[in-house]
User: What shape does this take?
Amino acid sequence: MSKVIHVGSVVIGGGNPIAIQSMTTTKTSDVARTVSQIQQLQGAGCEIVRVAVPDMESARAISSIKKEIKIPLVADIHFDHNLAVESIKNGADKVRINPGNLSSEWKVVEVVRAAAERGVPIRVGANIGSVPDELFSRYSRPVALAEAGLKQVRLLEKHGFGEIVVSVKSSDVLETIEATKYIARMTDYPVHIGVTEAGLYEDAIIRSSVALGYLLLQGIGDTIRISVAGDPILEVIAAKKLLISLKMRKGFNLIACPTCARAEIDVAQLSLEVQREMSDMNDMNITVAVMGCVVNGIGEGKHADIGIAGTKSGAVIFKNGRIIKTVERSAILEELRKQIQLLVR
Ligand code: SF4
Assistant: This one.
């Protein structure tokens, strides 16, 4: 089991719940827009948020941002140790930086000292694009990636720092899996898992679900990010759905039939309406089925807690394979909500 690490108010590792991460796309120095995006992310279920810190203005903005948000903030820094120190001073709850990218050892010491003084963990690791050629010449690609990450870990350990989170990422699913398995075997620090540069929505969801799903089922992964080229809210929704699918988290689970010639309702449209209408029920541990017809729908959906099956004039609502109500099209959502509330009570 991995070591327990505190990232602000969120405890990761050691069998604690897997935390969902995302990253802002706004300029961090633009406090108003960054706060607004983080608030939307936290509303969607993001539990740890990362912001890029490319300059001093961004590092200093962290203290103002932190006052307006509820979830821990991770400062993402490349190369400049001063930005890491300043971010920590301004209240960052975790720093992502690779000490091997700092040009001198004394700079690593300064970052470690600042982090240790304030109990701030450091995430280190490697992306496939940053692995030195020397490692590729000695190892297979996944092992080279993991070894590059381990090198960063050892640098921090050399300076007596142990509040570490590790992560190794590739845009290749199999490389990500192999490298992450390797590094998880070689250290007991919490592991952040994700596929980097996973692509546009469909590609990102498929690649990330395969890699993260496999790793999580192997017991590897303490925080996750599904990186999507686009709106980060999508990352959070997808990560939540992944954890719910793996039964690693409770939540609202919507299943829907693919429809066929027997369908009496527009299942896709009604599913969207159900999802939207029940969005305030996201934390309820309930599975709702939307099925196109009563012929097969009730039987096929009976494992759900509650379901709707289409009829010529509307739908029936069923529970445990039994019809409990018949409703007109216009009343489906209202009645479903009522029945869910009764069920939860
Ligand atoms: S539930 Fe009915 S409409 Fe949906 S796929 Fe099955 S048979 Fe077709």
Q: What stands out?
A: The chain has a mean pLDDT of 94. DSSP finds twelve helices and 15 strands in the chain. The two ends are 36 Å apart (CA to CA).
